[in-house]
Amino acid sequence: MVFLWHGLFILATSTLVLTDDANINVKCRKDSVIVTWKVGQALASYPSRLLLGNCAPSKFSRTSDGGGKAVFHYRLSECRFRQMRTKKLLVFKNMLAFRPLMGQYTTTTNYPIECAFERPEWVRPYLEPAFGALQDYGRLVFSMGLLNDDLSGPALSNVFTLGSFIYVWAAVEQQMHQPLMLYMEECVATNTAVIGPDSQIFPVIANQGCLVDKSSRFLPRSDSSFLLLQLQAFKFAMGSEVYLHCKLVVWDPDDLNEEKKACNFNRDLGKWELLDDPFQNDLCHCCDSGCRTRKQSFQSEPKELAQRRVLGPLVINSSTSNNDGNKSAFLDLTQL
From CA 50, how far away is CA 46, in angstroms rounded? Predict the structure, then answer.
């Protein structure tokens, strides 16, 4: 089987052309980058003014020749990386720079930083039960499921260790529809396949796309039709099963707004960040209060561009002792 995430690998780990006063090495990973910048004595005296986008070095050390080595280790969703898409590639671009004066935005010594990835080939997701059944809504086909730890294929078990990461993917096959961006507008985890008065409910995504479980995060997209959630495993009570109820929506990718967004909380910086365009992070500011709503409840009937999916059961154990031999058996309900 060819999987949705197949092919998302780094095309090259690059070393940029060097100048007399700088030595720059770039290592691209699946969702992060490590940039090492060796600078001369003049720049080494001002390490806080060395920038990758808007990020200062995550580590800086002096070298024996009087210079210094700055290391930038950040996710590709940080530091104002810009995404560019071609027919075959997903490219992340940024600039490495030195800012002579604090408080000013004029920079010198600019170097382009670039990471390029193959875009995964889209295949019709007629997937086995681990990925859930499909439902055609108009010309849009929504689906949701699990990936294994290295994101190379479907998860082979529905049992997870408490505190480990669960990789949940959502996708829409657009068929003949105009290009659309997929979002997880709302998600809650419950201990029941159908939400009822006795259900225990834990919010995961709220406020039209805000990932309120701050131990989890959206990973960089490979395609506008695909969204990957890295969810930290949790449990309600000993022996209980967990079901993930999500509302999936699609929207015009050029019309990001407070209702159509995917927002991560950066715990290191203490702020919200927009997954698809860091220059519009202000769209996430409402995540701590209340984003605009269309007065449509989570339980209401989905329309053509929205659909509800249920993924489960997920079994969360406190140890790995019971992880072997459990095959996934997920429900995928379209009417809640």
Answer: 7
For 188, the 3-state DSSP assignment is: strand
Both tokens of residue 154? 């479907």
CB 12 within 8 A of CB 29: no
Q: Are 195 and 254 in contact (CB under 8 A)?
A: no
- Cβ contacts of residue 246 below 8 Å, gap of 6+? 144, 170, 184, 186, 187, 205, 308, 309, 310, 311
pTM over 0.70: no
The alpha carbon of residue 336 and the mean position of all alpha carbons in its chain are separated, in whole angstroms, by 26
Q: Record the tokens describing residue 309, joined without a space.
A: 């999916």
Strands 201-206 and 181-190: antiparallel
What is the distance between the alpha carbons of residues 96 and 20, in angstroms, rounded to a whole number? 16
- Taking the alpha carbons at both ends of the chain, their separation in whole angstroms is 31
Contact 177, 136 (CB under 8 A): no
| The pLDDT of residue 189 is above 70 | yes
In sequence order, what DSSP letters do the residues of 99-158 get, joined into one string?
-SSTT----EEEEEEEEEEEPPPP------GGG---EEETTEEEEEEEE-TTSSSB-S-S
Predicted confidence (pLDDT) per residue in 10-47, tens digit = 333 333 333 333 589 999 988 889 999 998 888 888 88
Question: Can you give the length of the chain in residues?
Answer: 336
61, two tokens: 């050390």
Which secondary-structure segment (H or E) carries 229?
Answer: strand 226-232
